[in-house]
Amino acid sequence: xxxxxxxxxxxxxxxxxxxxxxxxxxxxxxxxxxxxxxxxxxxxxxxxxxxxxxxxxx
Length: 58
Known about the structure:
about 0% strand
């Protein structure tokens, strides 16, 4: 078990971590894409709801 942790820490030291600015910018991009896709899917869901309501005649 100790060997596993030692090897894991060794690998983590080899990682090139993003700078604070890079991490901030990537987080912004991820949030923008997430909110954009959520809005798109919400609108699509609303349109299908209306379409099926018209088809069913509600």
